[in-house]
Amino acid sequence: MIRNIINKSPETHPLTWRVRNDHNPVWINEYKSKNGYFGASKALHYMEPKEIINLIKDSCLKGRGGAGFSTGIKWSMMPKDNESRHIHYLLCNADEMEPGTYKDRFLMEQLPHLLIEGMLIAAFTIKASRGYIFLRGEYINAAETLRRAIKEANTAGLLGKNILGSGFNLDIFLHTGAGRYICGEETALINSLEGRRATPRSKPPFPASIGVWGKPTCVNNVETLCNVPAILEYGVKWYKSIKAKNASKDTGTKLMGFSGRVKNPGLWELPFGITARELLEDYAGGLVDGLKLKAWLPGGASTGFLTENHLDVPMDFENISQAGSRLGTALAIAVDNTINMVALTRNLEEFFSRESCGWCTPCRDGLPWSVKLLSALDNRKGQPGDIEILEQLCSCLGPGKTFCAHAPGAIEPLQSAIKYFRVEFEAGIADYFSNTSKITCIHNN
């Protein structure tokens, strides 16, 4: 449930201040009355693409899909020429299938024109005349909202030919995916958009050189693009000033949340650097009465577990990384003391195993193997050495050892669960020793 993000100031909550009290979508007339498309008009009439790229670089805007890569640098990788053979494409990654994550859905359903404006500015900057929103197929309401918003923007002359009399042309198309987690990986997304099997591509070449239909392509997350209009409107100095005192190098705001058995599950726009404890206790209201926090995932199911000892870590990319996990999408999941970590981890690995594209051997075979071992441990039928095999699998599926980042992300919760809650995994082989002793006694008698 989305809570506590309305009636805020545009200077402190640039993403969400326009949200309506009744949570209906903000359509084009209302959006324009709230300074909507000001940043796009400024970009198209008064700025050069190189100037915008430098502005986004200076703002230190990072990708909000989980990787945290510099948006300005990503844009600067696109070719600079204007030859017709170099058609450029902009792809918006809206295939939000990370378990426990729902921030992009909120933005698309509530503020569709904020996304369209961000895409308009980005497309002008990278000289793209075609934009695609690759949307998770299950997001039916978001699809309906975006279709209407795109139609409104076309009617108002904010998409199509000669936008705002600037001479710039852009068409945006909505493409709904077929429901695969791997499509969140940008090259798998590109393959799926082209009608191919959704498997990642080898990099290099990167999409900026060879992307959709062999043309230069830039892929950005929904929340990333939604940050762009405010940066053009209010400037770099303002954007870099929005962060908590504990923040590292990250600037601006981030949609953060807490789910699980907390009193007030929800989503909030907050500055980088707010601590996880503040997010959990002041915003999510803490755990339901009678429960205690056992562990938490900082940003979706593919991030490593942290414990109560890490609650005072600032919520930003650098500090969460130093704590041994990843910020990811910053939509945290609370695990209470009634939950068995072996069962929870098995559930997560079953999802990642099912969603593997099957392209490379370590991921295709390693993840099902981890599920088999975890299932045995969960049913207290594990054998000596099972935990060590799981640790070896974590090593074999780590960064740089698979074709893409799917498996390395999948094993993050597994290896951290073993690290912090090994005793629960060891309990899964307790019956093995008990049964062995019984067999030995019978044999001796």
UniProtKB/TrEMBL annotation:
It is an enzyme of class 7 (translocase). Keywords: 4Fe-4S, Flavoprotein, FMN, Iron, Iron-sulfur, Metal-binding, NAD, Oxidoreductase, Quinone, Translocase, Ubiquinone. The keyword Lipid biosynthesis does not apply. Residues 342-387 form the NADH-ubiquinone oxidoreductase 51kDa subunit iron-sulphur binding domain. Its EC number is 7.1.1.-. One of its GO terms (molecular function) is quinone binding. Signal peptide: none annotated. The keyword Oxidoreductase applies. Gene3D superfamilies: 3.10.20.600, 6.10.250.1450, NADH-ubiquinone oxidoreductase 51kDa subunit, NADH-ubiquinone oxidoreductase 51kDa subunit, iron-sulphur binding domain. InterPro entries: NADH-UbQ_OxRdtase_51kDa_CS (IPR001949), NADH-UbQ_OxRdtase_suF (IPR011537), Nuo51_FMN-bd (IPR011538), Nuo51_FMN-bd_sf (IPR037225), Nuop51_4Fe4S-bd (IPR019575), Nuop51_4Fe4S-bd_sf (IPR037207). It catalyses: a quinone + NADH + 5 H(+)(in) = a quinol + NAD(+) + 4 H(+)(out). It comes from the Bacteria. Its cofactor is [4Fe-4S] cluster; FMN. Pfam families: Complex1_51K, NADH_4Fe-4S. Composed of 13 different subunits. Subunits NuoCD, E, F, and G constitute the peripheral sector of the complex. NCBIfam families: nuoF_fam, PRK11278.1, PRK13596.1. NDH-1 shuttles electrons from NADH, via FMN and iron-sulfur (Fe-S) centers, to quinones in the respiratory chain. This is NADH-quinone oxidoreductase subunit F.
